[in-house]
Design a protein that fits this description.
By secondary structure, the protein is α/β, with parallel strands linked by helices. It contains 14 helices and 17 strands. An 8-stranded mixed β-sheet has the order 2-3-1-4-8-7-5-6. A 7-stranded mixed β-sheet has the order 11-10-9-12-13-15-14, with helices on both faces. It starts with a strand and ends in a 14-residue tail after the last helix.
């Protein structure tokens, strides 16, 4: 049996339990929930599957060393002890991301440089040559996390954040992050046994993630690549087997509907739905929520209305009052879930929520509220077998450390610098062939990538902290924009305090 090793799945604040449940269903072992992360163990296949199948993970790290780093010299020495030849092949490039919570190390960039120094010096001493650093497209990505004097050095098996599924072609302002959207749906307990409606769908993220869950389509099927595909021990046959196995996909007996008052948003959502091959499962139409009528079939509503933070709304409170009115009069017998930020907005809905779940949307402390809607009195509703609040939801509500009632804007950097992908409005993903609905996806072929830009990066250097390091190529920004990359800053996990 293949030996298991330590792995860390990073996620957003509030989604840890959902991610842990996903890992349990995936068959991971030794699952431990931390802050914005879940630790587990698994073999190579598990690592591949975690990247390919998890809906609420941002990235999957493979720790290779744990050590005490009381000083820069300690850290340098410990990193040099690692045999880097087993991770970085000759002629390959690498990069280092650092996350630091320490009195000794106040600058994450300094930590990055010291780690790079140790690796480069080891190669130079052993072979007379040094590996090159590539910021935009490295062969090997490393992650070092320092909490006071405790350091963890990991291989990043994901590369680009896993929220970048690959189906998003265009976006409207302030799009909902794909991982957050999937987490909301899984958190609601929706079993794909009803229709799903988003009456303010924007670019369609909730619709697409709901469709992928309903049909049990792996979110990684649209991705162009994962970082582990460049590792020396990459098992192409194993990954191709995982990639091309769609035996777990299923039919969906209901339908998913999206509406938006903005025709631009409708067209964007339709484009993204088509790119995901889900046009038969998802219908998007132009309609104002104020004109919403009771659906013909039992349904769940889930939506992320404007908060008045990144999207200006002329009559914000009036919008939420209208939402409450529509739900009360046209959605009896069903349940609705709303993600929002301002307490005064929730108050305007005028309905009593059965559960409030704290979630971060980007840097905003939000709440995800459920409204169980029924006709008549609650006593009669319960007598007929209706459930206002499940046992799981009661446990959620009993959690400590609830969000403050009067929230203020707080700067909170999530993995990859942001939770809601603010950059999506400025680029389009490269269009690729994606499977049509109902057909098997094309067999995946693996081709080497062009690293011609690496040599150009190595031609320009500068001195910092007494050592020579690679200067980022001026073309990086243009390349990043073209490829739809975000600036990966402060990628980190935190242990429970």
């Amino acid at each position: 049996m293949e030996q298991e090793f330590e792995l860390i799945a990073k996620t957003f604040m509030g989604l840890e339990a959902v991610l842990a449940q996903e890992l349990t269903q995936l068959g991971a072992n030794n699952i431990q929930i931390g802050r914005r992360m879940v630790a587990f163990t698994g073999n190579q296949e598990m690592m591949y599957r975690a990247n390919f199948q998890l809906r609420t993970a941002i990235r999957i790290l493979k720790p290779i060393a744990h050590f005490k780093a009381r000083s820069a010299e300690d850290m340098y020495d410990e990193v040099r002890k690692i045999d880097w030849s087993q991770y970085i092949e000759q002629g390959k490039t690498f990069s280092v991301d650092s996350v630091v919570y320490s009195e000794e190390f106040r600058n994450s960039r300094f930590v990055t440089y010291k780690v790079k120094d140790a690796i480069v010096d080891q190669f130079r001493e052993a072979t007379g040559t040094r590996p090159n650093i590539s910021v935009s497209n490295p062969d090997i990505r490393l992650n070092i996390h320092i909490a006071e004097d405790q350091a963890t050095l990991s291989l990043d098996s994901s590369g680009e954040s896993l929220h970048r599924r690959g189906y998003r072609q265009e976006s409207v302002e302030a799009p909902l992050n794909e991982v957050l959207a999937a987490g909301m749906i899984l958190m609601s307990g929706w079993k794909a046994d009803t229709d799903f409606i988003d009456p303010m769908c924007g670019s369609g993220t909730l619709l697409i993630e709901a469709a992928l869950i309903a049909r049990n389509i792996n979110p990684g099927v649209f991705r162009k690549a994962f970082a582990f595909e460049k590792w020396p021990d990459f098992n192409q046959e194993l990954f191709d087997t995982i990639y091309n196995d769609d035996s777990q996909e299923r039919d969906f007996a209901h339908h998913i509907y999206g509406y938006d008052v903005d025709m631009k948003a409708v067209n964007t959502a339709r484009l993204n739905v088509k790119a995901a091959g889900l046009s038969q499962t998802v219908t998007v139409e132009q309609q104002d929520f104020k004109d919403f009528k009771k659906p013909a079939e039992k349904s769940i509503i889930m939506t992320n209305p404007p908060y008045g933070e990144r999207i200006s709304t002329p009559d914000l409170l009036g919008t939420y009052k209208m939402i409450g009115e529509r739900l009360k009069h046209e959605f009896g017998g069903n349940e609705a879930w709303i993600l929002s930020y301002r307490e005064e907005c929730f108050e305007q809905i005028g309905l009593k929520p059965s559960i409030k779940i704290p979630l971060y949307n980007g840097s905003l402390e939000c709440e995800f509220r459920k409204y169980a809607l029924f006709d008549g009195k609650m006593k009669a509703f319960r007598a007929e077998g209706g459930v206002v609040k499940s046992e799981r939801e009661k446990r959620e509500m009993a959690q400590k450390h609830r969000f403050k009632k009067n929230r203020e804007f707080k700067q909170h950097l999530d993995d990859d610098g942001e939770q809601a992908d603010n950059h999506h409005s400025h680029f389009k993903h490269a269009k690729r062939d994606v499977r049509s609905e109902g057909a098997r996806k094309p067999f995946r072929s693996h081709k080497g990538e062009d690293h011609a830009d690496v040599q150009e990066q190595n031609n320009q250097k500068y001195k910092l902290l007494g050592h020579r390091y690679e200067k980022r190529d001026r073309k990086r920004t243009k390349i990043d924009q073209r490829r739809g990359r975000s600036n990966e800053r402060d990628n980190h996990f935190q242990e429970d305090e």
